[in-house]
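Hi support team,

I'm filing this because I wasn't sure whether my run with copper (II) ion finished correctly. The job status page said complete, but I'd like someone to confirm that the output block is well-formed before I use it downstream. Pasting the exact inputs I used:
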Amino acid sequence: MRRRAVLGAGAAALGAAGIGWSLLTPKLPGKLLHSRAPLPRPFEARLAIPAVLAGEEIVQREADLAILPGLTTRAWTYNGSFPGPTVITRSGRAATVTHRNQLPEPVVVHLHGGHTPAGSDGYPIDQIMPLPPAAAHHYMATMAGDTTVGARTYRYPMQQRAATLWYHDHRMGFTGPAVYRGLAGFHLVRDDEEDALPLPRGERELPLMITDRAFEEDGSFRYPLGDADYMNGVLGDVILVNGRPWPVHEVDPARYRLRLLNASNARRYRLQFDPQPPGGDAFVQIGSDGGLLTRPIGHDTLELAPAERFDVVVDFARWKPGTKVRLIDRDGGDVMRFDVTGPKTDDPSRVPPVLSTSAEPLPPPKRSRTFRFGQGRDGTWRINDLTYQPGRALARPRLGEVEHWRFVTDFHHPIHLHLNHFQVVSRNANEIGEYDKGWKDTVDLRASEAVEIAVRFTDYTGTFMLHCHNLEHEDMAMMADFVVEP
Ligand code: C2O
Ligand code: CU
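And here is everything the job wrote out:
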């Protein structure tokens, strides 16, 4: 049986009919890719916290990173690190970030969770061409977007509340391999409402980007570009937290704020501590993709689909000093470890019973629409039975109006909306799930589920995206445009 090599080939290259993939669709998203390099031992690397971006410029370039012992990993990076530098901006204060492309291929930058005008939203064909111009010319021929050569300045008005956002590559058909090679970083928005709360801060506020990767023998990232066996998603056999394999972090017996981001291409996690603290509810969730919840929610387990963020407070004083607390994935083993050290220290932090007042339900919708996420007979991933085509809008909501969007799946798909955060209003015609609370921009759907969201389209007209955030599905055309009309 010959399979067409389509993964990462770009939606535009798809077309001819292949095999009836749906017959072969497994129950879990993704397929495990084994490393050829010897695997590192867990809990030998130290957790690293990405540097905060100084200034407003990021250079995208190759860099050799020390991830595995004794080997280097040639990565695509923002400013030479993976994750890239953390961008910190202030709600209500406009910011710009200029990206220079010194990589050998075109790039696109999307601020995930950003409430951003269309021109700076990282539309997949609005590419930054590589230098020198000769290289750019090679790619220009195939592109019709709003492209630039060498650099581009993205403008972020930041008319949005405090939240954990992230930025990553979004190039048409090649987002999976580009993110896998290292193009992802945090972008934190802060505001007065959040600053006024006595939450853990400083060294006790940790952004944690969780990814899975496989490695070649020489230490480079192993990605099955062009291998249709991995069209359900690529799963690596090494878990990296902030780019380090199964790292360890020493913590005081005190409260910590963990801004958890699943930046994996396809892997979803069911995170839990081992041992669990007496009394359970180890994770006190304070925020979701779109910022603070109204009230904190305790969880024993946290389920994170690709691109989702959970902002949680964990009180390490609940374990005895000296305890090595493993953060595990109930489906896949170790993630990282927190070693609780030292005697009890001063901890001025608290989690107040009311965190925010800005989560009132949206008014009734002006209209409802249904989007079916499924696989075509040719193996492409589709929305409403269409593969992605730039410029073809599947919806034209009006500025300022509330709509209900119903997502229906065949298979597991984490579904992401650009421009506005939304509220989940029902799951399978029932109550929303434990992880659906607050303002979201990505909602996790399992096989054969239906989720309804409420969203209001605000501030910016133009073309935005709706897509699956399993990056292999996204690259295989599970995207759609929607146009916000005046
Ligand atoms: Cu995080 Cu359109 O993507
Ligand atoms: Cu999907």
